[in-house]
Design brief:
By secondary structure, the chain is α/β, with parallel strands linked by helices. The protein contains 31 helices and 17 strands. It has an eight-stranded parallel beta barrel. Strands 11-12-13-14-15-17-16 form a seven-stranded mixed β-sheet, sandwiched between helices. Helix 2 packs parallel to helix 9 and helix 20 runs antiparallel to helix 21. The two termini are 55 Å apart.
Length: 997
């Protein structure tokens, strides 16, 4: 195989693969350079072990949310912090990993100020005493303007950076490894171009030759690195670059994580660079594949001799030799991908790493103790600004608001600009302050501050939602695909509070409106916790924050017998982990708690737990593949859902005929296959939560939970389509945005011409855009639960056998969300007959239920044509109720049941015509909070019924409540309903809530 061949070449030549042809060490490793919660000391120790086994040799410490690295770079480390950092550096040396300490002084340094230069030297001198022998100066994402004082001392910004870097380099006695990250760190940020950039040419010509310069490639997140582009930057920098590779970085999109192999870089480029350092996912446990496959890539061209890159159909000499060695591995010449360098093939590299990854997944490892509570920070509203000609760019939510102390004045408060590790601001865009004003496009709503998203009392006049949906401004090539349409618009994204307020026994916390994997707040030091202040108190409130996803049963991170026994007992008894706030004062740098080598014991079926198979691991990788590519099994879900939706007319036509047709049989077969595949993904989530590696589970849970939730909606929608009720011509349905199958979309997505944050949301967002209610962002962009949900829930269309269960739920929630059993002891069915009986009798095909392992625990019922349903109700349903509940005279007063019966016999009030015209459908939604653990289920359930109603031609839905039902009014308001203002008078005790579709 190709991998064996690369190892053989290295062994035969006797050449160290870490050495370049010129004898200089080839830098390969990992940068911890993202915004968000830094990795723990134990995770870094495990990282060093992974790197050693993968042949990587360099680690850079550069967490942007460590105050003493960036915001407060002048401050020296305390005695305790110094000890912790010394231990970490020593641990890296033990694994033959070079520890690079990076500092980012560019936010507020005065290049001409002697005190600042001395502070910088003093800080690095201190770190050098800890045993550190390699350093880095990072000037990424800072304002490229000199202060007035610096302008009098330096001719340009580049000269100022060079002067300080050279002085520090010489002061440290010219260490063997000294890295420099420029402000123009990719081709798209070079002004006006790489070759003509005055800044880059100044850096290249003036920076001392012993200093290596970092470069991310053509883009912040570059799909490909080519020899031509690397030769161009090498000419400008007067030396080969060290690649700061963001191909696996995910901190620009809270719904995406990347488990695919290192890709887009031919081994041919190795001789043209001085090294590669990957800046991977924020979630540590998600990075094993990125590290392992990067190691394979670095080892695939051990000679490092410059050869001609593939030109046309001709392969380079080395690739041709490898092709001859591996031809026997293919059945025929047609099977050999001639355009691929056979020394390294990403998919084979992924499979090669699979056994090692499965061992990591099955080892027993607890999540790190958190040094302070993780909170949901306040984010900037998204904004669409113009970038390069013809390519609108999107500014995703900014980094978290800095609590204490106040950020440096060189940038807007709390809004650090984008580093290579956190490419949140497209090229040419200056960060703006948090008090930005003006109209924000609704496309950015899921990223807005929750406090800014209150439900309006009335819908907009001539309501027509804009396009595209959240965070997806499209290039001009795709804009032509957009067509106007009625589609669901988010009226509010406030969280659903039903599960926490209906019943005091509810287990779910109060969710907040947006789906955000909560990053950490910056740490002020290696030991101290951020002190509470006015901002932090607000962020920690239930309306805007949440506690970290942590395991309540977690024992300290040590290898003591007692610790292991407790963990094993939890797994054996299948105890559901709970998440709780932990106020540990442990430093992020602390490493005294020895994680040690992984335990090779793996769980087995005999112990009552699930085992992650290789197929499961490949499925997980495919679902969260790479920034510019979806995995094969992820594409299956997209392609199959699109085909089923597009061809649903076959089922409609079949229902109008008596004879079954081949087309309908095929449709049902493919629908069953789709549902079966969704079931596999659901089981994957169960395996994740039951596995022994709780650290891996906590890092991956929110992403897989989100995707599985969307897949369940898609499955329920497909099951509803199988009924053949989509009478509204699907071919005429248009969406508020393009989909994966729109002309030019897939090509633009995969081309790499746009940064990946232009296509936000990952596979989840692509599936959402295939549903009729694609822009109902409040039903899809949901914060994951703050605890691990081990129960499984299924959403499916209503069946006749569910009637008794729905009546039971209705009774349990009929008293303004509370149990009405004691209110109607002698008539347990009366409230079901009043509230949902007409839906189940007259419109049973537009209902959905949530079921757990016990049975149905929630429902939504609806009528596609509420006005027609009301007429039928008066003609048939009400007479049957009057017969079932006759009027009786009672001298002792009326009970609640008597009042309901009286209402059956009274003249029924008419719903205003204005409501029917704007919101022609009606619904009722109830859940049992004691059994529904997932706080997102009400929204998911609503998404199912709105998809069905939209596919049948409805443009809006309403519900009717009593004015006194305060909780239910609030409950529906949190689901995007708002009070409908009507001109004609209605009963003072009735309120109508509506929502467009």
């Amino acid at each position: 195989m190709w991998l064996a061949s690369s190892w053989a070449i290295s062994k035969m030549t006797g050449k160290d693969i870490s050495q370049k042809a010129d004898g200089k060490k080839f830098i390969s490793g990992v940068v911890e350079g993202f915004y968000g919660r830094p990795w723990s000391a134990d995770q870094r120790k495990l990282l060093f072990s992974w790197m050693q086994k993968s042949g990587l040799n360099t680690y850079m410490y550069a967490p942007k949310d460590d105050y003493k690295h960036r915001a407060y770079w002048r401050e020296l480390y305390s005695v305790e912090e110094a000890e912790n950092l010394s231990h970490l550096i020593s641990s890296a040396k033990d694994k033959d990993v070079t520890f690079v300490y990076a500092i980012s002084p560019g936010l507020d340094i005065s290049f001409s100020n002697t005190k600042d230069i001395q502070a910088l030297k003093r800080k690095l001198e201190q770190v050098a005493t800890f045993g550190c022998e390699a350093f880095a100066m990072l000037f990424d994402d800072i304002d490229p303007e000199l202060s007035e004082a610096d302008r009098s001392a330096f001719q340009s910004f580049g000269l100022a950076q060079v002067s300080v870097s050279n002085e520090v380099f010489e002061h440290l006695l010219q260490p063997k490894l000294f890295l420099f990250c420029p402000t123009e760190y990719c081709a798209s940020r070079a002004v006006p171009s790489v070759a003509s950039s005055e800044y880059l040419n100044t850096i290249g010509s003036k920076l001392l030759p012993g200093i290596d310069i970092m470069w991310t490639g053509p883009k912040v997140v570059s799909k490909k690195l080519t020899v031509a582009s690397l030769e161009e930057i090498a000419a400008a920098l007067k030396r080969p670059a060290v690649i700061w590779d963001n191909i696996h970085a995910n901190d620009y999109d809270p719904r995406r994580i990347f488990l695919g192999p290192y890709d887009g870089r031919s081994p041919e480029v190795i001789p043209y660079i001085n090294g590669v350092m990957t800046n991977p996912n924020t979630e540590f446990e998600a990075n094993f594949m990125a590290i392992h496959t990067l190691g394979q890539w670095c080892q695939s061209n051990p000679n490092g001799v410059k050869k001609d890159i593939i030109k046309g159909d001709r392969m380079s000499p080395i690739a041709s030799d490898i092709k001859l060695e591996t031809e026997s591995d293919y059945i025929s010449d047609d099977d050999i991908p001639i355009h691929i360098d056979l020394r390294y093939q990403p998919r084979l590299a992924l499979k090669s790493a699979m056994n090692d990854w499965l061992a990591e997944i099955h080892c027993r490892r607890e999540p790190p103790r958190q040094p302070f509570p993780r909170v949901i920070p306040t984010y900037l509203p998204g904004a669409i600004l113009s970038g390069p000609p013809g390519v609108p760019t999107y500014i995703p939510p900014g980094p978290p608001v800095v609590l204490n102390p106040t950020p440096p004045p060189s940038i807007p408060p709390g809004i650090p600009s984008c580093p290579p590790g956190n490419p949140t601001i497209p090229p040419g865009i200056t960060p703006f302050s948090v008090n930005i004003s003006g109209d924000i496009p609704s496309a950015a709503q899921p990223c807005m501050n929750p406090s800014d998203l209150q439900a309006p009392s009335t819908p907009p006049k001539n309501y027509l939602p804009p396009s595209p949906p959240a965070g997806l401004p499209m290039p001009d090539i795709i804009k032509t695909c957009l067509t106007p349409s009625f589609t669901t618009q988010t009226m509010t994204t406030a969280g659903v509070t039903a599960l926490a307020t209906i019943c005091t026994n509810a287990q779910a916390p109060l969710p907040i409106p947006t789906f955000l994997q909560p990053p950490s707040l910056p740490v002020s030091s290696l030991l101290e916790l951020p002190q509470p202040g006015p901002i932090s108190d607000a962020l920690l409130g239930t309306d805007s924050g949440a506690e970290p996803m942590e395991i309540g049963t977690t024992c300290p991170l040590d290898n003591s017998e007692n610790s292991q026994n407790n963990t094993m007992a939890n797994n054996e008894n299948n105890i559901a982990p709970t998440l709780e706030k932990q106020n540990s004062t442990d430093s992020l740098m602390q490493i005294e708690s020895d994680m040690g080598e992984k335990n090779e014991d793996t769980i087995s079926d005999g112990r009552g737990n699930y085992v992650f198979s290789e197929d499961d691991a490949l499925l997980l990788c495919d679902l969260f593949y790479m920034p510019f590519e979806h995995g094969a099994q992820g594409l299956f879900f997209l392609q199959r859902l699109h085909w089923l939706r597009t061809n649903a007319h076959i089922i409609v036509e079949k229902n109008s005929k008596e004879a079954n047709t081949f087309e309908s049989t095929e449709w049902h077969h493919l629908a069953d296959e789709f549902s079966s595949k969704v079931g596999v993904a659901v089981n994957l989530l169960s395996k994740l939560t039951s596995g022994p590696n709780k650290s891996f589970m906590c890092d991956m849970y929110s992403y897989l939970w989100d995707l599985v939730s969307i897949l369940k909606i898609c499955r329920a929608y497909v099951q509803w389509l199988a009924k053949g009720l989509a009478t509204y011509p699907l071919a005429q349905q248009t969406f508020s945005c393009v989909t994966w199958f729109s002309k030019g979309y897939k090509e633009a997505f995969m081309s790499g011409d746009q940064e990946p944050w232009v296509f936000r949301g990952g596979l989840q967002a692509e599936l959402q855009r295939l549903l009729p209610i694609d822009s109902a962002h409040d039903l899809f962009y949901i914060k994951p639960p703050d605890y691990i949900i081990t129960k499984t829930f299924n959403i499916r269309p209503y069946k006749a056998v569910d009637e008794d269960a729905l009546y039971h739920i209705c009774l349990k929630t009929c008293d303004d969300g509370m149990d009405g059993t004691d209110v109607f002891p002698d008539n347990p069915q009366i409230m079901g007959d009043k509230l949902i009986g007409k839906f189940l009798t007259l419109s049973p095909d537009f209902g959905f239920v949530v079921e757990d392992d016990v049975g149905v625990c929630g429902y939504v019922v609806s009528a596609i044509d509420a006005q027609d349903s009301a007429k039928k109700c008066k003609m048939a349903w009400l007479p049957s109720l009057r017969e079932k509940y006759p009027l009786t005279e009672k001298k002792d007063g009326c009970s609640p049941a008597d009042e309901v019966i009286q209402g059956f016999h009274n003249e029924q009030r008419n719903v205003p015509e204005e409501i029917y015209s704007m919101y022609p459908s009606s619904l009722r939604l109830d859940i049992l909070p004691s059994r529904v653990e997932d706080p997102a289920l009400p929204r998911r359930l609503l998404a199912c019924v709105l998809s069905a109603l939209k596919s049948s031609g409805s443009k809006g839905v309403h519900c009717e409540l009593n004015v006194g039902d305060k909780f239910m009014i609030d409950f529906y308001a949190k689901l995007g309903f708002f009070a409908i203002t009507i001109m004609e008078e209605t009963s003072e005790d009735t309120i109508y809530l509506g929502r467009p579709i």
